[in-house]
Design goal:
Blueprint lengths: L17 H10 L6 H16 L3 H4 L24 H8 L4 H14 L3 H13 L6 H18 L5 H21 L4
Helix pairs in contact: 1-2, 2-4, 4-6, 5-7
């Protein structure tokens, strides 16, 4: 029997699930590195979560799709791959959709969108209006899924009631 020392691999340890990289390798055959394969895997995850494949295969028009802004093409579908790759890293599908909706509504530049996504995903440890907004939207979407007859008027009333209730309890505690 030969004595062979097994050295640990050098460099930063992988923090990404191997499955994502495998998805990227399987579907994105042209990936030249592990990182490229992993990024493509996250891109595919976001495409599926937002149902953007219907844009790619042409079954839905860009203007009719709720996340149509992510297609920057004027004929053939050209997804905003950098933003979608970063969105795919968000584990919770409801939060992913809420952030995607916010990005589409504000039509953010790539740099702004990625900064926002990373701030949310990595949770900088401080309270932020963005994080709160996304969590509120996620809760509203969950409620609407359970109660499809919910109207915009009811949502607005609930938000106003919650704001007033929160303000009263904050005042009761003597907070500014």
């Amino acid at each position: 029997m030969e004595n062979v020392s097994i050295k640990p691999k050098r460099g930063r340890p992988r923090s990404v699930a191997r499955e994502v990289g495998e998805i990227g390798r399987r579907l994105g055959g042209e990936a030249k590195s592990d990182r490229s394969a992993t990024n493509f895997g996250y891109f595919v995850i976001a495409m599926d979560a937002l149902d953007l494949r219907s844009l790619v295969d042409g079954t839905v028009k860009k203007v009719d799709h709720p996340y149509g802004w992510f297609d920057r093409g004027k004929g053939e579908c050209q997804p905003r791959q950098t933003i979608l790759t970063e969105l795919g890293r968000i584990e919770n599908q409801d939060e992913l959709r809420a952030i995607a909706e916010l990005i589409c509504r504000q039509q953010m530049r790539t740099r702004e969108a990625i900064a926002m996504i990373r701030q949310f995903r990595l949770g900088e440890g401080t309270a932020s209006a963005l994080d709160l907004t996304i969590r509120i939207l996620s809760s509203i979407n969950d409620y609407i899924l359970q109660h499809p007859s919910t109207t915009l008027t009811q949502v607005r009333a609930a938000l106003e009631n919650a704001t007033n209730e929160w303000a009263e309890t904050t005042e009761d505690r003597g907070e500014p």
